[in-house]
Amino acid sequence: MSLPVVKRDERGISTLYVHDKPFFMRSGEIHNSSASDAEFLEKNLWPALRGLNMNSVIAPLYWELIEPEEGKYDFTLLEKMIASARREGLKLCFLWFGLWKNAESFYVPAWMKKDTGKYFRTEKVSGEKMNTISPLCKAAVEKDRQAFTAVMRRIREIDSEENTVIVIQVENEIGLLGTDRDYSETANAAFAESVPEALAAALGKTGTWEELYGEDAGEAFMAWYFASAVETIAASGKAEYDLPCYANAWLRQSPWFPGSYPSGGPVERVQHIWRAAAPSLFAFGPDIYVPYCADVMDSFATEENPLFIPEIRKDAVASSYALYAFGQKNAICFSPFGIEDLALDPDQLDKPPMDLMIALNIDPSAFDITGSKECLAATYDLLKQLEPLMLRYRGTKSQQACVRHGECDYSAFLRFTECDLAVSYGPRMSGKPLGACLAFELTPEKFLLIGLNCTPAFHNKPGVNKKLDMLRMEDGRVVNGEWVSGRVLNGDEKMNLRFGDMPGALMVDLYQY
Ligand code: DGJ
Fold this sequence. Notes:
Elements: E1 5-8, E2 14-18, E3 21-22, E4 25-26, H1 38-49, E5 56-62, H2 63-66, H3 76-88, E6 91-101, H4 110-114, E7 121-123, E8 129-133, H5 138-159, E9 165-172, H6 185-192, H7 197-203, H8 209-213, H9 217-240, E10 245-250, H10 271-277, E11 281-288, H11 293-300, E12 308-312, H12 317-328, E13 333-336, H13 354-359, H14 372-393, E14 399-403, E15 411-415, E16 419-425, E17 436-443, E18 446-452, E19 454-460, E20 468-479, E21 482-488, E22 504-512
Parallel strand pairs: 4-13, 5-6, 6-9, 9-10, 10-11, 11-12, 12-13
Antiparallel strand pairs: 1-2, 2-3, 7-8, 14-17, 15-16, 16-19, 17-18, 18-22, 20-21, 20-22
Helix pairs in contact: 1-3, 5-9, 9-10, 12-14
Bound molecules: (2R,3S,4R,5S)-2-(hydroxymethyl)piperidine-3,4,5-triol (DGJ).
C-alpha cells in the first residue's frame, strides 16, 4: 500500500489519498497547548471530539518538549497521541511547532532560546532584536532540520503501516510582525545581493530585491528566506518519511502592510516565491478568522494550490463554509480552530481576551460557538455520506455549491444543463449558519439539493416557452451516496422550498409543461 500522498485524480483535482483511497479531511485543530499533557488528552480532549463526525484531527508537536536537552529526543507525547488517535478512529495531521509559531520563536527549546549569540534574532531597522530567530541563521535551521527529521523517523518507525499520521504542517504562521524584513547584519548583506538564481529563473529576470520588487522587496526577501529554511527542514524530513507537507499562512489583511501581518509568510502575493524556494510543500493553507472566509477560499484555491484549511472560525457559519469548501473548492481539509471548545456550553466558554484577538487580528465573533456543535456534526456527517457522489461529480458542472460571500451578497445563480438554480440567502444572524447550497444534477431533470439557511428556486433557460415545475419533491437523507427518501412534499410544503438552521437534503424531480 502507498503512503499518504497528495496527487491529481483522473480529472486533475489535487486529492489526498490514504491507503490509496481519496480522503476528505473533516477535521478540527485543537488549541495550542492541548497536546502537551497526556492526561489532559484523555480527560478533556478526546471526549470533546466524539460525536462531531470528524475523521481527522490537527494537533501540535512541540520542539521544546521533544528536545528539552540538546540532541536527546523524547517522543513520549507523539507516541501517545498516535496511539490514542488510533483508538478514537481519527487520522492525524501534526503541526511542527519548531523555529516559528505565529511569527515568533515560542516553541524552540530553552537551550536555543538562551543562546542568542549562536542562534541570532531578527532585528528591526532600529536594531531592536525581536523574539523571532532569523531564517538566515543557518545554525538554528540546521537544529530544527535535525529535530524534524528525527520526528519523521519516529513516525515512520511506528506508523508506516497504519498511517494514522497523514499530513504534516511545517512550522506555524511564519513571518515577521512589526517590520517588513530582518535588518540584522547578515540579512542586510543578503538583501543587497541579486535574488537567488532559482528565483530569477522562475521570474525570467534578475536583479536585486529592490529592483525586482520595489517597495515590497522586504516581504519578498523574507518570503524567500523563510521558504528556503522550511524547504531545508521539510525536504530532510520527507527523505526520512515521505508524508505530504504544507505551510500555513496568517492572512494578509487590514491594514495590509507587511509587518501588520507576518511579512514573509505564504500569502497569495508571495506564493510564487515560496513555490520556487520550497518545492517539497504541496500547499499553502489559509488560517481564516476574517468575516469574508469565502473570498479567502476563492483566492487560495488555485490550479497550483489545492485548498487545505488548517484553521477557520468556529462559529455557526463554519458549517456553511464546509459545504462550500468541499462542494465547490475541492478542499482537501476543512478544520475549525479550537475544535474541542464545541463540547462546552457557549456561555461557559472562556473566550480569548479582546487584546489577544486584536493582536492576532481575529474577528471576535469567530470564537462564538453558539449553535456550532450540532450544526457542524450534522454537516460533517452529511459530507461523509455525500463522498461517493462528490467523487462522481466534482470537477463537473453537475456539482455546484455556493455560500453567502458578504453583507451585500444576497443570492447565487447556478447554471445547469436544462435549467438554472437561483439560491437566495437568508439573513446573516449570530449563532446561525450562513446561506449555503450544494446542488447535484443527477439528470437534467433530477436534483439533489443540500442546504443551510437559503431558498432555492429553479428557472427555465432563457427563451424556453414552457413552464418549469416540480413533479415530485422529497425530503430525506443520503446514506453512503444513496438517497433514502422521507416525506413527499407536494402540498403546502412545496410552496416553501427552504433550508433552515440545520443542514437539510431534498430530492427534486422537474418537468415542463
Ligand atoms: C492562529 C494560530 O496559527 C493558532 O496557533 C492560534 O494561535 C490561533 N491563531 C488563535 O488562537
